[in-house]
Amino acid sequence: MENKPFVIVTDTTSDITAELAKKLGVGLMGISYNMEGEEYDGLDHVLTPEVFYQKMREGAMPQTQQINPDQFYRYFKVRAASGLDIIYLAFASELSGTYNNALTAKEDLLQEYPDIRIEVFDTKSASIGEGLQVYLAAQMQQRGASYDEIVASLEDTRNHLTTYFTPDDLFHLHRGGRVSKATAIVGSMLGIKPVLHVSDEGKLLPVGKVRGRKAALAAMVDALVELGQENPADDIVMVGHGGCKEDAEAVVRMVKERTGRKHVMLFDIGPCIGAHSGPGTIDIAFLGTKR
User: Fold this and answer.
1) How far is CA 208 from CA 23, 135, 179, in A?
2) Residue-by-residue pLDDT tens, the chain, 291 positions
3) Cβ partners under 8 Å of residue 53, min gap 6
4) How far apart are the C-alpha atoms of 82 and 66, rounded to whole Å?
5) What domains appear along the chain, each with residue ranges and CATH number?
6) 3-state secondary structure string, 191-206?
7) For the chain, counts of helices (H) and of strands (E)
C-alpha cells in the first residue's frame, strides 16, 4: 500500500496542550464545557487552569460535553478531503461515549471517501495516560514511521501504559458516582486519600487508601518504582495536576530522585477531566512492565 500522508488526531481529554499539539503535528479537537452558565469550546475560548480550579474551589460545578458524531464527521472530512488518512486516539470507551461517536462518524465518512483510512483507537485511558500514548505515536511519526507501523504499535503501547492518580477531595468522586457519600464524608474527616488505577479495560479502580496527602503522592511513585520498565533512561514519565503545581513538582522530584528518570513532563489536568476529578488531583503516567 502506498505511503499516503496522514495525521494523528486526539482531543483535549488527553491534556495535550494546543502548543504541544502544534509542535508534535497532532490535530487537536476541543471538548466543550459549561462553567457558571458560560460555554467554553475547549480550544479557542477557555478558562486558564488557575481560574477554572479556583472557581471549582469556590463551589462551581462545571459540566462537560462529548464530541458528537457530526462534529467528528466534519473534522475528519476536512482531513479526508485533503487526502489525509487519519489516526484518532480516543478517550477510554468505558468512561465516555466519545469513542463510539468517532466510530459512527468514521462509518459515515467512509461511504463518501472509501479510499481514506481512519483508525479510531481506544486508548482505554484519560488525561496524561491518553496523552502519553498520543505523544509516543507522534514521536514515531516525526521519526518517519508509517501509518501501518504506528497503528501496529498502538496496542503494545496501550498494554504497557500505567496510570495512577489521587484526588485531594473525595466529594468530586462521589459526584461522579465513584465513591459513596458516606465514604466521601468519613474519608475527608479522617484525611483518607484514595489512590486509583486505570484498569486494563479503562475503568477507574481503587488500589489503596492512605492517610495524608504526602503518603498518597509517595504511593504513586512507589508504583512507578515497582512497575516501571527495567531500562528507564529514555522513558518518558508524565505528571499531571489539577491546580496544585507545588505538589506535582514534588512528585517530579521524587520520580527523578528515586528512579533516575530524566524525561519527566509536567501537565495541567484540563477542564474535561478536572470537572470530574476536582482541584488538587495528581496523576502519573508511564510505560510499565504491565498495564
Assistant:
1) 37, 29, 13
2) 457 899 999 999 999 999 999 999 999 999 999 999 999 999 999 999 999 999 999 999 999 999 999 999 999 999 999 999 999 999 999 888 999 999 999 999 999 999 999 999 999 999 999 999 999 999 999 999 999 999 999 999 999 999 998 988 766 665 655 555 544 444 454 466 778 788 878 777 777 777 788 999 999 999 999 988 766 656 899 999 999 999 999 999 999 999 988 899 999 999 999 998 899 999 999 998 776
3) 242, 243, 274, 279
4) 26
5) 6-31+66-159 (3.40.50.10440), 161-287 (3.30.1180.10)
6) CEEEEEEECCCCCEEE
7) 11, 13
For residue 74, the surrounding DSSP H or E stretch is helix 69-81
Name residue 221's amino acid. Answer: V
All residues at 6 or more sequence positions from 62 whose CB lies less than 8 Å from its CB, including other chains? 33, 34, 35, 52, 55, 56, 271, 274, 275
Residues 6 or more apart whose Cβ sits within 8 Å of residue 193: 166, 167, 168, 187, 209, 210, 211, 212, 213, 215, 216
Given a contact cutoff of 8 angstroms between Cβ atoms, the answer to whether 40 and 64 are in contact is no
CB-based burial label for 43 (10 Å; 0-12, 13-18, 19+): middle
> Are residues 38 and 60 in contact, defined by beta-carbon separation less than 8 angstroms?
no
